[in-house]
Amino acid sequence: MNLPPRPLLPKHVAERWGCSERTVRNMIRAGRLKHFRLGGRLLRIPLSAVE
């Protein structure tokens, strides 16, 4: 059974890209990085938006 890839936390995106978590959050805030929220607060970034 193939499951879709799990979405990433801002922290994990920052580690992949070699930048700060603040930079990732700023990109989300500016609308330059696709994301969604779980439970109203938890940010998640689809793997497709990172690659």
TrEMBL record:
Pfam families membership: HTH_17 (PF12728)
* Recorded superkingdom: Bacteria
All copies of the Helix-turn-helix domain together span: 11-51
> Which protein is depicted?
Excisionase family DNA binding protein
Q: Which organism is it from?
A: Ancylobacter vacuolatus
